[in-house]
């Protein structure tokens, strides 16, 4: 429909009055249509601020209505009023975030302040923005293994398909891969954190895939069927299509307890800390060795840094203390600067160091964990490595000369970790990730589509029982 203005001499007035009338009607219709479109959630939103328990009783999709003038509310059903309030709530929320606009779902109040964590979600969902996430994409992660298959024989490096139904995580194969080592709970915690977010905020019904057993991204090309597998992992390079979940170490290493410890006044105040960079590492070899600017492949980064530091000490340079005897994370806080290098994949010590208030000197690396997108170099950490291993010494010399800057960077990272990497921030991230994914899902799920459904709680229980039978101690899994 095109509105053509025609202005011709004497008949101008008459035309104008007629056009105005047409315009008013057209614009009203247009506004009504746009209004409907704007306020209609793109995907069914199950929880409009309703507690998960209450929502489970009435799981039908709630379609929000466009707001109507106040006097029109009189004849409305309670649900319609609720829907209206929820749409208004959404609009009010949107005005209080700087850039993140939840559309079609209600974001819990406490999640608004964590919006910078959602940068990575938008970035990582981009491959599916135009096409949505289809059955073909999910199948590109691997067809679900037979429901009667033994988990013992499931590949270590397996993708596990799971489904959220009425806020319960279910495994849709015969069970999860069982490892004997301590890495097992780490991968199970991909599901723990989703279950925790479902319990706290409510999550939409949807199918998803978690990737077990890899330290960096699993999906760097389309699958055999042409689909792009939207698999959850904890660390990826920009070439990977993976979506990021918080690392299992947040739970296993009791990160929130570490936040509490580091929120107490430091035993060694900044002025009294040693002006050295400190680093202690397991000598892992990186899965994806980086290149420096000279094209040198940094094959054994951690060993190389230790050797370099050792060499410096021989020549009476004392700005580094890297690669010596073990010291606890708490004890390491007597140094102003601390070095963080990738392990096989993302180093999960990074989030711990960020919380200490030391200046974190971090290897420049393409690898990303879920919160890395919210960090900025020279604001939250100091980058190093691109100019070769020896750059570390120059960086420390610079920080010694710019003590106020070094201190500020440490304070920034500490504030970031304490404000956003706590349990609330992590669960809000999962809430937004799942809601944004749901909006892209082209497939609705029904319980009857899955021949085998094991709830996550059952699976954890089974795992404990097996461990006890083997006489193995398990570590605590918090659900
Ligand atoms: C699983 O079920 C399939 C088909 O029902 C059957 O052919 C197969 O032998 C079963 N496997 C096991 C381990 O029971
Ligand atoms: C951290 O401290 C807060 C406030 O004292 C407390 O509520 C919370 O339970 C503590 N967290 C942990 C993991 O101990
Ligand atoms: C350790 O560093 C020195 C001096 O930079 C170098 O000559 C030596 O090859 C290095 N050793 C190893 C094992 O990298
Ligand atoms: C060694 O370090 C000390 C103390 O920092 C300094 O006074 C001395 O000049 C240094 N010697 C060399 C050869 O660099």
Written description of the protein model:
- The chain is globular and about 75 Å long.
- It has 479 residues and is α/β, with parallel strands linked by helices.
- It contains 14 helices and eleven strands.
- The protein has helices spanning 12-39, 52-57, 78-96, 119-125, 135-139, 183-201, 249-252, 255-263, 301-314, 349-354, 391-401, 403-420, 423-440, 456-469; strands at residues 159-165, 168-171, 206-211, 231-233, 243-244, 274-279, 320-322, 335-340, 359-363, 382-384, 454-455.
- The longest helix has 28 residues, at 12-39.
- It has a six-stranded mixed β-sheet. A five-stranded parallel β-sheet has the order 7-6-8-9-10.
- α6 (183-201) crosses α13.
- Helices cover 37% and strands 10% of the residues.
- α9 (301-314) links the parallel β6 (274-279) and β7 (320-322).
- Residues 1-19 and 31-75 have low confidence and may be disordered.
- The protein has two domains: 116-252 and 423-469, no CATH class; 266-420, Rossmann fold (3-Layer(aba) Sandwich).
- Bound molecules: 2-acetamido-2-deoxy-beta-D-glucopyranose (4 copies).
